[in-house]
Amino acid sequence: MTMTxxxxxxxxxxxxxxxxxxxxxxxxxxPIRLSGVKQRTGVVLVKNHQLSKLGNNKTAVQMDxxxxxxxxxxxxYRAFTPIIVSTDGKQEQRxxxxxxxxxxxxxxxxxxGIDPLYANNCENVRRQNGEAQHYDYTDVIDRxxxxxxxxxxxxxxxxxxxxxxxxxxxxxxxxxxxxxLDFKFAYRPVVxxxxxxxxxxxxxxxxxxxVDRWEMKPDYMQNRRELRKITDTLDIMVADPYVTVNRxxxxxxxxxxxxxxxxxxxxxxxxxxxxxxxxxNYDLPDSAFAKAEATPxxxxxxxxxIEKMDGSVLPHWQEILDLIDNTDLDxxxxxxRIRAKYPQDYRYLLRNVYPGLRRSDYDITFNIxxxxxxxxxxxxxxxxxxxxxxxxxxxxHDFLRTDRDSVAYLHAMQAxxxxxxxxxxxxxxxxxxxxxxxxxxxxxxLLEHAGASGPAENARAILYMKQKRWTDAEAxxxxxxxxxxxxxxxxxxxEMLRKQAAEEEE
Length: 506
Prior knowledge:
Blueprint: H1 3-24, E1 29-33, E2 43-54, E3 58-66, E4 77-85, E5 92-94, E6 97-101, H2 103-112, E7 122-126, E8 134-142, E9 151-157, E10 168-173, E11 198-205, H3 223-239, E12 243-253, H4 260-281, E13 293-295, H5 299-307, H6 317-325, H7 331-341, H8 343-352, H9 354-357, E14 360-368, H10 373-382, H11 389-402, H12 407-419, H13 424-436, H14 440-447, H15 454-466, H16 470-482, H17 488-505
Helix pairs in contact: 5-6, 7-8, 10-11, 11-12, 12-13, 13-14, 13-15, 14-15, 15-16, 16-17
């Protein structure tokens, strides 16, 4: 076959595509308002857009791109690329790009060639700023099975960098009504800031001391069992190469019987004794052991215990609480009056409550070193709690990079939320995943705790659109824009959805 014959057949095919598509072309106009561009100079109208089947093996895309209101700086260009997206959003195909270049940029293209980002498949036109101008766009590609009922978007690259995160996508054609709301909203993951992994562990050990003594006796009574509450934790930390113990602080508490001064002496000495015992048993710098502290009499614990009782257990529980709360009485007077006025209640407290008031609280502050991505992926397998929120995010998105439908990605993002439930970043990211999976109940529950940031309001807008709550969606989009989260493609989707819903009602 000669080159002339090939060219003739190709021209005939394109003519057939144009003629067939024109017969079914939708009489529609979609305004494209570009972000970061003045409103009057950043509007493109896309008219009569059509995605059609040609024969059995071709798909044609046509549209009229009206540039009348678009102003392009002399040394810049704008790239407009139609993209076909499957109804489930899992497949997409980029078509021929239209480059609209300013005067100087057009000269550069003619001299040095088209930007390599688009050179292989594009058309370039020079924008005559201030004049009426339109481009009749047509592209014909090999047909794929998923093209049926597919969505059509127009991607606008304003930076000339080809970065999808800096481009905007605007919907031109939505799925048929039976396909529901299965198309691409603009989601923006919230990247957590790196943070120091300083952790704190708090607990209580009920160490028993010989009456009126403070020497630490590990084998006395149940002390070995109680000490293990502290030592088991420290043993794990000391053996872990990723963990550094920064500070161990002991706070001792005594029960209210006996004179206050005597209890003060016992409580302080017993707290110091436990601290010294830990120093002797762990090869840690002295700076890791904070000065021991003590509360001579644990009236707080006594009050909490009595509040849980009733008259059948402690007949005069209210009178005793009134004495405890009397700020005009010093501790020794309170203790004497309880013992003298309510001897039966006092004996019950002495036997059943006071032993639990004598305790040693411990606070262990430690930090976990920062991990490389490779290390974080290994640590994630067995100790995800050692990862920061940012490290979990990076691990999750590394899974996503290698497998778009990665279950591991979902598990890692869920782990980020489980470990950091108070982080709005973790909440918003998990809510966006739920929205993409149409788990609207989960998304709505999460977004109740997502705060009022731009990404949170953008996610709420998507939720409301999926729920067909147009007024709420409009309000959420406005709040998102006020917070600096401008997603004009989502606004365009909402306008088209509302129109679609109205047509369905008719």
